[in-house]
Amino acid sequence: MDWVNLVWQGLLVGFLASVPLGPIGVICVQRTLSGSHRSGFVSGLGAATADTIFATLAVFSLSFLTDFMTAYKVWFTAIGGILVIVLGVSIFNKRVRRPSQRRQTRSSLVSDYFSILLLTLTNPAYILVFITLFAALGISSEGYSVGLNVVLLLGVLGGAGAWWFTLTYVVSRLRKRFRLRHLWWINKITGGLIVLFGVLLVLSIVVDLGPVEYILP
Predict the structure, then answer these.
(1) How many CB atoms lie under 10 A from the CB of residue 174?
(2) Cα dihedral sign, 140-141-142-148
(3) Which has the closest alpha carbon to 33: 150, 141, 214, 176?
(4) How remote is the C-alpha of 5 from its chain's centroid?
(5) Which of 81, 60, 201, 191 is nearest to 131 (CA)?
(6) Distances (CA, A) of 6 to 9, 12, 19, 97, 147
(7) Quick count: other Cβ atoms within 10 Å of Cβ 170?
(8) Can you say how many angstroms the Cα of residue 159 is from the centroid of all Cα atoms in its chain?
(9) Per-residue pLDDT of the chain (217 residues; tens, 9 = 90+)
(10) Which of 100, 112, 162, 166 could form a disulfide bond with 43, CB atoms 3.0-4.6 angstroms apart?
C-alpha cells in the first residue's frame, strides 16, 4: 500500500537528515551527559519538529514561506549564530554537578524542547537538505492526497525522533562512566565547540564556507 511505503520513506529521510552531528547534536549530547536521557531526547525532539516543518515546506512547496525565509536568510543566520554562541558560553561556564542532582521539572523539559526547536528553525537553508533527499530517494509528493503527504511527514518525524532517541540513549548509557572532572572537561570542550559553530555560522553570512555550512544548525 502507498501509505506503508510513504512511512518507510519518511522514516529514512528523517533519520538521514538528522544524523550529521552539528551544534544541535553537540548540545543534545551535552544535555544528556549533564542532565539525563530525557533532557537530551526532548531537546532532540525539538530538532525533529523543526526538521518536520522544513520537510513540510519541501513537500507542499509552500513557496511564499520558503521565499520569505530565503529573503531574510541573513537575519535568520545572524540570530541563529548569536544564539549558538550564547548557548556555548553558557555551557562553557556551567557549574558541574552530578546528573542525579539536577531536578527534572516539566518546565525545564519544555525549555529544552523549545530552545532547540527555535534554534534549528533559524536555518531555513535546511529546507534544501530535504528537497535533495526527496529527489535522491525518488520521493515525489505529486499525485498523492494531502492525507498521504501527512503520512510521509509523520514518517519524517518518526525517523528523526528515532535518531535522537538512539543517540541520547547510547550517550546516557555511557554517562555512568564519567566523573565530575570528566563532566567539567566535557562542558568546556562542548561549550568551546558550540561557540566555534556559532562564530562559523555568523561568518557564513559574508564568507563561503563550502560544505561546512551544511552541518550548521
Answers:
(1) 11
(2) positive
(3) 176
(4) 25
(5) 60
(6) 5, 10, 20, 44, 11
(7) 13
(8) 13
(9) 477 788 888 898 899 888 877 788 888 888 888 788 899 999 999 999 999 999 988 887 655 556 666 666 777 677 777 777 777 777 677 665 555 444 556 678 898 999 999 888 887 777 878 887 887 777 766 656 777 888 889 999 999 999 999 989 988 888 777 665 666 666 677 777 777 777 777 777 776 655 545 545 5
(10) 112
Amino acid at 126: Y
Q: In 10 A of CB 88, how many CB atoms? A: 24
Provide the grid cell at 67.
521565499
Residue 15's identity, in one-letter code, is F
Residue type, 151: V
User: Position 79: which residue type?
Assistant: I
